[in-house]
Amino acid sequence: MWQSKPVLVLLLLAVSTAATVGKPLLTKVTKGVTSTALYTAPLSAGRPLVLDLSAPAITTPCSGQTTTVTLSANSTDGSNPISPVSFAATATCAAAPSGAVGVAGLARSSASFPAQVASTQKVANSFALCLPSSGVGAAIFGGGPFFLAPPADRPAITTLLSDGVPLRQPFSGNPGYFVSATNGIAIDGTRVAVSGSGALIVGLSTTIPYAQLRSDVYRPFITAFDRAMGSSAKVAAVAPFELCYDSSKLSPTLSGYSVPQVDVMLEGGTNFTVVGGNSMAQVNSGTACFAFVQAGGGTGGATPAVVIGGFQMENKLVVLDNDKQTLSFTPYLPARGFSCSNFNFTRAG
Ligand SMILES: *[C@@H]1O[C@H](CO)[C@@H](O)[C@H](O)[C@H]1NC(C)=O
Ligand SMILES: *[C@@H]1O[C@H](CO)[C@@H](O)[C@H](O)[C@H]1NC(C)=O
Ligand SMILES: *[C@@H]1O[C@H](CO)[C@@H](O)[C@H](O)[C@H]1NC(C)=O
User: Fold this and answer.
1) Does domain 165-329 sit in CATH 2.40.70.10?
2) Is there a contact between 275 and 204 (Cβ–Cβ < 8 Å)?
3) Is residue 263 within 6 Å of ligand 2 at its C-beta?
4) Which helix (H) or strand (E) holds 216?
5) Whole-angstrom Cα distance, residue 198 to residue 134?
6) Distance CA 94, CA 102 (A)
7) In which residue ranges of the chain is pLDDT below 70?
8) What angle do CA 128, 134, 139 make, to 5 degrees?
9) How far apart are CA 308 and CA 227, in angstroms?
10) Which amino acid residue places its CA nearest to atom 1 of ligand 1?
11) Is the CB of 81 under 6 A from ligand 1?
């Protein structure tokens, strides 16, 4: 019996190395121009698939239930594309969103794009999104470092990642990504009082343009920001936003307009911090608005308190690790001299 132990260990070692011997895959990420602001990646022979954190499968128009599609990207060392890679993936038949040929579902499911990259490429089921505010951002599927140029000798921005925040599954059957804000939300360092406040459920979505707050959280949150901002720069609201400001009266900084900081205080003590660059949307040349909106629907148990939207994730590296079941993210990168549009897409060598 004792003899079988080393064999088992060796076998396990072989299996675990085999599971991660491939190279991660890199793709460009582009932000759509419409008000829906979908983020797409040219994974289908150069044609765009919508990146959707809440969708459990790859979908494409077809007849029947599922089909096989060929997807392509480049292998990467985290700094440049290395070589083109094409692979067969299983897709579910569904109409394509406008402006795209299908959806690359990124949610927690064995049929998702990251899960199929992990199984076909023998890489980790983990991915890093660097959503651009303009220009071309990047995503890497399969783990590893993530570099933004210039300069060429910079350290990987993955060194700026927060500790992993545990992913939670508060809604049975919902394949999306959720974490728990055990200490609620603070504005300018002061906790926003929410009635019945226990932990708040926070979801992530790449298909809503701006963060949505459930009405019982939205009202005290907006009131607290309004109070912290004061009224000297306030102007008429521009839908869908409630708080808008004369942007010539706001101070621009590397972190965006200098406005009260929002801290979503997550489980384990990590803050998802939202500085001006991720909180103030420039709606026209003279006006910037606080880009948090009220979610539709009730205050019932099935609605997350907060859903972080695309705008709040732009120019941060956001890593969803399905193997470790964690979320991690960097601070707002322009404050560190980087932007998600700085990935070096020139092939190395
Ligand atoms: C791979 O990278 C090269 C160089 O950037 C690019 O021209 C090509 O379109 C990429 N291929 C895919 C499938 O993304
Ligand atoms: C998180 O944010 C709160 C409120 O702004 C602050 O008091 C706390 O020190 C922050 N924690 C960390 C680890 O930065
Ligand atoms: C981009 O990568 C190429 C290939 O490694 C390199 O020659 C070039 O200097 C890099 N550009 C920047 C701006 O770092």
Assistant:
1) yes
2) no
3) yes
4) helix 215-229
5) 37
6) 8
7) 1-20, 34-37, 197, 298-301, 349
8) 15
9) 22
10) 74
11) yes
Q: How far from chain centre, in Å, is Cα 99?
A: 20
Ligand 2: which atom is nearest the Cα of residue 261? 5
DSSP 20: T
Distance 104 CA to ligand 2 centre (A): 35
Paired with 41 in beta bridges are 49
Is 165-329 the same fold as 22-153+338-342?
yes
C-beta of 348 in contact with ligand 3 (< 6 A): yes
| Residue 26 CB less than 6 A away from ligand 1 | no
Distance CA 327, CA 270 (A): 11
**Cα 344 to Cα 48: distance, rounded to the nearest angstrom:** 20
The residue whose CA is least distant from atom 1 of ligand 2 is 271
Quick count: other Cβ atoms within 10 Å of Cβ 37? Answer: 18
Q: Domain map of the chain by residue range?
A: 22-153+338-342, 165-329
CA distance 299 to 291: 21
Whole-structure pTM value: 0.93
Cβ(326) to ligand 2 under 6 A? no
Q: Which residues contact 11 (CB under 8 A, 6 or more apart)?
A: none
What lies within 8 Å, CB to CB, of 72 at 6+ separation is: 43, 44, 45, 46, 84, 85, 86, 87
Dist. CA 310–CA 340, nearest whole Å = 13
Residue pLDDT, tens place only, 255-269: 999 999 999 999 999
Instruction: Please answer whether residues 110 and 104 qualify as being in contact, where contact means their C-beta atoms are separated by less than 8 angstroms.
Output: no
Give yes or no for a contact between 50 and 29, defined as CB atoms under 8 angstroms apart: no
Which residue has its alpha carbon closest to ligand 1 atom 13?
73
CATH topology of domain 22-153+338-342: Cathepsin D, subunit A; domain 1 (2.40.70)
| % the chain with pLDDT above 90 | 84
DSSP 16: H
Three-state DSSP state, 300: coil
